[in-house]
Amino acid sequence: MKSTASAPGKIILFGEHFVVYGSGAILCAIDRRITVTAEETMEKKIHIISEIGSLKAEPGIPACDVDCILRPLYHLADTALRSHGIPGIKVTVKSEIPAGMGLGSSSACCVAGAAAVSGLFSDYSREEILHLAVNAERTIFQDTSGADCTVCTHGGIIRYGGDGHEKIDAGQNLGIIVASSGATHSTKSVVAKVKKFRNANPAEFSGMCDAESDIIRDVKELLEQGDIAQLGKKANQNQRYLEAIGVTNQTLQEMVRIGQGASAGAKITGAGGGGCVFALTDGGPAAADAFREGGYECFAAGIDSDGLIVFN
Ligand code: MEV
After folding, report:
1. Which atom in ligand 1 lies closest to the alpha carbon of residue 147?
2. Per-residue model confidence (pLDDT) at position 307
């Protein structure tokens, strides 16, 4: 018996980090995917094969003793083995999303992995898969807001907040150019750094959370209106808060300035400390040309409206 599922990567348009503290975020699923296949095996092993590492281990190992990158998949397979009493599971991962770049590779892997593994036994709803995926992600990153797994499950552009999530119907003219710093980051350690900043500067941080909530509210309407110029200004404002909480570095600053000089607005996307920035455009080539001239790889991100796809 085999089961295959696929989930898209993501970018955070607005609200990363502040979403961990309840300010909400606007996220977009992108047209790069991770596909996971799960297979029942007779051998009493959990076997995971991926481009970023492989693992063949006994079931029942404590999660903290499992290689960090593959831990969520091990957790999903091990939990399924215990509930369904089968000997082993083989999990194969194929990815179009670079790892550690803030483009949702970990969350997409958790979502597709949860759907592929649970699909061996039964049909689960998207909300059930999302729940399994967030729990799996928590084995490597306890403080996740759950926003990334939510957009990877549901696709499209969403507003995510404490009250759940809602889809946003954005105008057709939204162009998103994603540029890569080439440096990977650890979301967990950048989030821990922000926590330190917050503890040391509670009033300043709280003021930024309030301002970020206002951005999220305004941006929802601006997306629906397709007002790229105003969205760009909000991206630049959001970027100033990300700079204030210390998640940028010299390379990211240079990239953001290149993006801001050639588009409606630009900012870091995801945890920062490495990874990617994006520029908002109305479809013209100026931002992509400017990033390339600056020596940075970039691509035009298409919006994925499907989210999780289960193939069987
Ligand atoms: C990482 O993609 C987004 C963060 O806001 C963390 C989270 O929301 O879980 C930095």
Report:
1. 8
2. 98
